[in-house]
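Researcher: Checking consistency across runs. Here is Vacuolar ATPase assembly integral membrane protein VMA21 homolog again:
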Amino acid sequence: MLFFTLLMTIAPLGSFFIAKDYVFQGIFHVSNGSSYTYSAIVAVIVVHIVLIAFLFAAFREEIPGKKKSTAKDSTGKQD
């Protein structure tokens, strides 16, 4: 949980400034106003990627005390 909390704060901010300074203004020579817009779009995409990664990890996490069901258990048949 702490990992995703740190990732949610650091990744969008880092991607925003890296995209603005190095990619859009450095490589593509985009104007200052447009580079803010494009960098914000990149940061929003990064936020969505982090959220999807968190949801994926949360759904794959095992719940303590919950038994995994098998095909035998789900059919209702007993031996």
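Researcher: Does this match what you'd expect to see?
Model: One thing to look at in this run: The chain has one domain: 2-62.
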